[in-house]
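To: structure desk
From: M.T.
Subject: fold request, one chain
Message: Could you run this one when you get a chance? Sequence is below, nothing fancy, just the single chain.
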Amino acid sequence: MAELAKEDPQRVFTSLAHFIDLDWLREAYRRTRKDGAVGVDRQTAEDYAANLDENLASLLDRAKSGRYRAPPVRRVHIPKGNDGATRPIGIPTFEDKVLQRAVVMVFGVRLRAGFSFLLARLSARALGAWGEFGRARSAGELARWHRD
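Reply: Done. Structure tokens follow.
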């Protein structure tokens, strides 16, 4: 993808799915934080790793076929300051974190090729500013947009 972006900076990529394969998901898994809070399914990184190859193959199949649906996030309220106020945060499932990481990696490759000065760190939340992508609830949902 980096070579394509360098060769033709004006090129528009309408699909992410053909850039994500099993090796890409393995690398996304490797880069995903393993000690984070669990999502609504209560699955830990250790649980996911117990059947890693099968889990990643299933995730890839669902993402590429358009059957992947980002599960709801677990809502948690964390302390905001010393006054007892809290703020809500959403915690995605571990599998959704892996797919989000894979999608961010794709965007990172594309952005570094022509817009490295803009790339700090993408998140699913930041995608709202990307026009059409803003309709997705999470980066995982973006992966199903492979159908042109």
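Reply (cont.): Residues 114-139, 142-148 have pLDDT under 50 and may be disordered. Let me know if you need anything else for the meeting.
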